[in-house]
Amino acid sequence: YAPWTNNGTIGAHNGCTATLAAAWLNQGTFAVDATSTLNLGGTFPSTGLGTFDRTGGTVNLTGTMTNPGTFTLNSTTGDWRILGGKIVGGTVDATDGAEFVYTSSGGRLDDVTMDADMDLTAQSAYVYLDNDFTLNGKATIGQNAGLYFSGGTQQLLGNGEIQLSGNSSQIYNYGSLSV
After folding, report:
1. Which of 16, 63, 109, 165 is most buried, by CB atoms within 10 Å?
2. Mapping DSSP to helix (H, G, I), strand (E, B) and coil, where does residue 54 land?
3. Against a cut of 0.85, is the pTM above it?
């Protein structure tokens, strides 16, 4: 699947940033300390993330994660920031207080079922929603932030909740949306 595979440890320590690119698999460990950043760029499957040894720091989704099943953030993975990244397919969940945090760099969810809460409370945070989107969690949209339904025919499905909680927080529709 990938041009490269990690079988050891990729670490971000002492204030450093580790950035992954191209197509990859991690069969080893990601180690991130309290002052460092791991950028998950390139293209990778959610089933190829290996093990996390995280004692803080920041994990950014900057690339494309294909998700053939259910992917869950937890106390081991910690929060992930969506920083221009994309999740394709499957179900996304979060437990143990972990969450996906959306940013003003945006991101994309393509044919995703979101069972996790969505935090779009950062100033001007947004995410594009491609193809059908199922929300079973709570999406909290802050100031100048929004959900962007991309063009074409779209459906907003699920039993979730959208909370508009700031000035100019909106749901944008660039096509035909049915709810």
Report:
1. 109
2. strand
3. yes
Specify the 3-state DSSP secondary structure of 48: helix
What is the Cα–Cα distance from 81 to 128, expressed in whole angstroms?
Answer: 15
Residues 6+ apart with CB under 8 A from 125: 102, 103, 104, 106, 119, 141, 142, 145
Phi/psi at 6 (5° precision): -95, 125
* pLDDT tens digits, 99-144: 999 999 999 999 999 999 999 999 999 999 998 899 999 999 999 9
Ramachandran category for residue 165: left, alpha or beta (phi over 0 → left; psi -120 to 50 → alpha): alpha
Please list the ranges in the chain whose pLDDT falls under 70. 1-2
Pair 136, 161: CB distance under 8 Å: no
| Strand pairing class (58-61; 80-82) | parallel
SS3 of 46, please?
helix
Q: Tell me phi and psi for residue 40, to 5 degrees.
A: -90, 85
User: CA 47, 53, 57 angle in degrees (round to 5)?
Assistant: 105
Phi, psi of 154 (to 5 degrees): -125, 155
Strand order in the sheet with 37-40: 17-20, 37-40, 58-61, 80-82, 100-102, 118-120, 138-141, 161-164
CA distance 63 to 124: 20
